[in-house]
Amino acid sequence: MTLTSKNTITQTSSRLLRTSDDDQPHSRDLKDLFSALIVSLLPLEPHRVRFVKFEHTFLSEDAIRNLGNLKLTQSNRMPDPDNPTCSVTSTSTTTFSMSKDTARSLCQRFVDARFIEAADGKPDQIFAHRGGVWKPTSKGTTIFDWFCQKNGINHDQLFELRNLITGPLLYLERDPKTDKPHVDRATTEVVFCRMMGIDGRGKKGPLALARQESATGIRLTHERKIGGRTHHDTCTGLQISDWLRDKATCADLKEAINMASHFVHYNLIESVATDLAYMNQYVACKLFQPTHLAVYTLSQRGQDLIENSSSSRCSSQGKTDSSTSKGGVTESNRLKLEKILQDPTLRLLFRENLRSTYCEETLAFYEQADEFIQDAKTTLEGVKKGDKTADENANELLSQSHIIFNTFVAPGSPREVNINHQLRLSLSDRMTKAQAQDSTQADMLKEVTSLLESASNAVFKLMASDSIPKFLNNPAVEDQLVQAGVR
């Protein structure tokens, strides 16, 4: 419900935690809840475990208590569209409520996702109701940092926490319906190359360097004797699964095993030692076992992929695509952008390219606005047909529209996108007005949807004219673009 009191607009909603088919929390909700929890716990203070003090930690009971009634709040102060000499504060608040048992289970999910770890590094990572001391991992801190940037959160301790980040985090694209990471061949090859230390920006060289310790990739053992035979360029299943859980946005061990199994399936690695006991216990792990007893070597195809990925970047440095370097919103660029957004591998690389040029908010807005528009149109159709739940859905969607507005569109918002001034003014005017007495929620939703659709189209054109030429001329992604027929 939207309440207007003088110059304050407040939009509140209560959300249930979305779950996938296997009853696991959606990845985006899991990351947002974790980040909101850390915000509620700031500043993270020192705690002692067996007479040893650990910095930037928190207690189990504090996390469970805060999760019991967690609020995600966004506020923006902007000029009043009706009176520029005054200001309007727009605030959207989403509340998650849960029992202590649910909160503890959710904290265990944070542990499984490698967002947090026991402060003393003990291997038994079970989140108990009381007595545990926990700290954010490098992965958890990165996700928290993304959340703070997205929501414009500033805190004195943020700079200290960023020092906990030990390397880049690979963002895995997910199926919007199932929330499962994409494991098609092209995406799997990108993840595999990153695991070998090739980070997409040419920061690491050919296979020889993959045998060295690296902050971005795993370390291969040059020679390993197994059963009287010597195998070259090997690593354990535990190394692979740990890297996927620590350095990529896998939500748990199951997702890491699934990705690693596709390394085997696509003939990027080969098994040279199988952990039969683990395989017999978990029948789904025939291709890959995430243990120190299971050993894998690079296949010839895996070696070729690593060498080619490195050499192609070196040979293509300085090349430009004359058809795209001039800029402008050409029909070709529109079609290429559509293809990139539909392809999970290219979307992953495009998102990284935008992040490196500090333009990721354009894609984030486009995706969230597109999801909202599709849901809104479905809801409006339900209203026409007399669906009893449609009005409730309309109210929830209006709450979501305020979150999108406060994040991306409101003047001075933390991830403000570049759109036409008049369009921004129209959205601000609509969002800062109460519902008219002679209008319904469906009328409001229809108007907001139309405005957000216009903003989404404007951002799409901006990406096509500005971001696509830069992306197509990035030598680090040349192979994937050629394979997909985009370049």
From TrEMBL:
The keyword ATP-binding does not apply. SMART domains: DEP, RGS. Residues 214-300 form the DEP domain. It comes from the Eukaryota. Keywords: Signal transduction inhibitor. Gene3D superfamilies: Regulator of G-protein Signalling 4, domain 2, Winged helix-like DNA-binding domain superfamily/Winged helix DNA-binding domain. This is Regulator of G protein signaling-like protein. It comes from Fusarium kuroshium.
